Amino acid sequence: MDRNSRSPRHPKSSLGGGRVRAASRLRLPAEAVREEWILSEEKVPESRPHDRAAEAVFAQLDAMVKRTRKDAVVCRNLAVRWDEDHPTLGVDPDVCLLDPAPPEREEIESLRLWEKGHFAPRVAVEIVSAGRPGKDYSQSPEKYAENETVELWVFDPKLIGPKSNGGPFRIQVWRRDSDGELWRAYAGNGPAWSNALGAWVHAVLGGHMLRIANDKAGTSWWLTREEEERVAKEQERREKERAQRRADRLAAKLREMGVDPGAE
Q: Is residue 29 part of a domain?
């Protein structure tokens, strides 16, 4: 069986797939209940750069879902809980793609993997913050190893993570294999292949933002809804200009023939 295939318990995605050569592999054993894994009820403030980076990923994934009409939903800071006996334990990714969508869809307040119709994220994204730069390098992969998240991206835009094991890395892609283990498939500056999306993840704007593209060269970007609207308006403007030029050429030709184009 392909080592890059998804966890058998997770439904098949309609987003496509692919292969990428593993850069390294880390076996993550099941961990005992950890106090630091308890989800806090308090909202942790995000820095503006952190928020912009997360919002950019959210906007691209959300636009893809709306454009393709997938049975999926994109969330920010959604509590993901996987242990019914310890429901306060969990993780709240900066961005996550739920595919398929839970029954509550846009109204979901907490993902409980023991409930019917609740499945682990297809993709979870963690953005390294200055307050705890090492957390997403160590604790986050361990947490996601405990649930069935198919793919985890760890994005370190400012390269403030630890230098251990060759870091810091701008982009890490962790993937669950057919044995249910989470392993690091990529660590570097990108672009990195996302098996879960069938697309490439690029660090752009000096490495401070993530953009998704259909190709490694970054010539076919996934647009946000705002960008799609701008493209549509630009296409409409160009079409009107082309129509006006055609009308002007026709009017000039009629005048050359001695016909008044404005006459009835």
A: no
